[in-house]
Design the sequence.
């Protein structure tokens, strides 16, 4: 088992790793805390020293493009109304819905958010009150995977850290769990003090699963025989989706804030002062900004030289940055303007980059979901004494795209007219073919079950198909594709 010193070292090493440092930046940008917040202005004073300029405007506004890009990717991936873990076996599908229903979708959405903003996400398995395996989101920043080669006892572990609360003295209470294949050890840390055993836990260490004996006092435990943490990586290097667009977002923040500063800061006007009644330049600048006047000698003068704001150049640069953020961030720009001809083809083309990004992520998601389904199938087979296999399950992500209602109506009308033409053609051939052949063709056209329809016709005969064909062939068709 890991010692407290080893746990402390592993936590520190993980926090300082390039992987977690990069993930922290992604999390910060997702929360709308950009580098512009640390932006400062400097100038050289009369003594040639570089000092911070506290007199000029320094507006700091974050433009959370990355938040939108991440939420777009996650919600587009999970936009289908139906579940994405499916089986053609009705009994198995009913069981899978218990494990991968709406609750799982909610937890998985949080994991996918971590994948996009951090480069990796985690989920863990546990036994719920119904004695079934459930899956719950785990904060990726708090999960540390310890390989066997990194420990003295050559066992694998997962360390999970989370902030439990902030007490009344503003001290951060951190809970630390150390998982192995059989049990969990619990620790607690107050602020940055030494890690200690968590005495609030009645069972420490605790088995993965704890059962209470029926009609008896006492408990007994069980284990999964594996560490129930599963990680989904965005890519092989576990890099955030922020990397391709961070510089562009920073540039957009800088250009937008620079324009705001130009509009607000009177220093855009040059003041040529003669005979200033004051001791230093700071006093002159302060008087201009706050009192809107300055004192000069009797023969003094103030000449204001206005400077044109670089408005057009900044706005053009903002437009270019915004376009590139959505382009290289592979997102959907809802503010994108077109020529007014917004057809379904145009709409789908605007989703092309987002589709490409989600298709790439989907390959990782499928491999990840197979690990979870394998665990669920094992329990399903144990409970129901079945022998379902992984190849009995498949994954289907149906992504919803906004469409043009007028286009949809026209498509439906065309399809209806096409079906009517096909039906008339089939019925026109009824005189030359037998009833079964005609009935089979009609069932294929409308996706009916041939055997079921034939059985019902035999029980309740209707008009002869030859007579029906002549009637329908001579019947006019209205503009909507239906019968006149």
Sequence:
């Amino acid at each position: 088992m890991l010692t407290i010193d080893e746990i402390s070292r592993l936590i520190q090493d993980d926090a300082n790793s390039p992987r977690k440092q990069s993930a922290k930046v992604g999390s910060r940008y997702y929360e709308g805390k950009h580098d512009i917040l640390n932006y400062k202005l400097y100038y050289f004073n009369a003594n040639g020293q570089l000092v911070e300029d506290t007199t000029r405007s320094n507006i700091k506004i974050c433009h959370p493009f990355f938040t939108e890009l991440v939420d777009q990717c996650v919600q587009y991936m999970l936009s289908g109304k139906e579940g994405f873990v499916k089986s053609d076996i009705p009994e198995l599908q009913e069981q899978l819905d218990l494990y991968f229903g709406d609750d799982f979708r909610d937890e998985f959405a949080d994991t996918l958010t971590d994948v996009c903003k951090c480069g990796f996400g985690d989920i863990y398995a546990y036994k719920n009150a119904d004695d079934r395996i459930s899956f719950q989101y785990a904060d990726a920043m708090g999960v540390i995977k310890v390989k066997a080669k990194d420990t003295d006892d050559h066992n694998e572990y997962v360390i999970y850290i989370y902030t439990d609360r902030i007490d009344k003295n503003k001290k951060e209470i951190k809970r630390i769990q150390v998982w192995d294949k059989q049990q969990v050890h619990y620790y607690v840390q107050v602020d940055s003090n030494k890690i200690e055993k968590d005495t609030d836990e009645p069972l420490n260490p605790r088995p993965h699963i704890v059962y209470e004996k029926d009609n008896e006092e006492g408990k007994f435990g069980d284990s999964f025989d594996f560490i129930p943490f599963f990680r989904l990586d965005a890519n092989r290097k576990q890099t955030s989706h922020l990397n391709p667009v961070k510089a562009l977002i920073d540039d957009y923040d800088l250009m937008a804030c620079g324009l705001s500063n130009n509009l607000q800061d009177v220093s855009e006007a040059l003041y040529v002062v003669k005979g200033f009644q004051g001791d230093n330049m700071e006093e002159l600048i302060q008087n201009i900004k706050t009192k809107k006047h300055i004192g000069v000698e009797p023969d003094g003068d103030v000449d204001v030289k206005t400077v044109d704001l670089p408005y057009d150049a900044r706005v053009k640069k903002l437009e270019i940055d915004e376009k590139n953020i959505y382009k290289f961030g592979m997102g959907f720009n809802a503010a994108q303007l077109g020529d007014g001809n917004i057809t379904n083809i145009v709409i789908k083309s605007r989703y092309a980059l987002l589709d490409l990004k989600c298709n790439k992520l989907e390959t990782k998601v499928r491999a990840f979901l197979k690990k979870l389904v394998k665990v669920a199938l094992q329990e399903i087979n144990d409970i129901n004494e079945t022998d379902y296999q992984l190849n009995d399950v498949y994954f289907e992500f149906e992504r919803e795209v906004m469409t043009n209602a007028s286009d949809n109506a026209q498509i439906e009308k065309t399809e209806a007219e096409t079906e009517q033409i096909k039906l008339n053609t089939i019925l026109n051939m009824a005189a030359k073919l037998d009833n079964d052949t005609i009935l089979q063709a009609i069932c294929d056209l409308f996706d009916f079950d041939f055997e079921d329809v034939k059985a019902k016709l035999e029980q309740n005969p209707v008009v002869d198909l030859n007579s029906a064909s002549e009637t329908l062939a001579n019947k006019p068709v209205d503009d909507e594709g239906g019968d006149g």
Remarks:
- The two ends are 82 Å apart (CA to CA).
- Residues 4-29+65-239+356-378 form one domain.
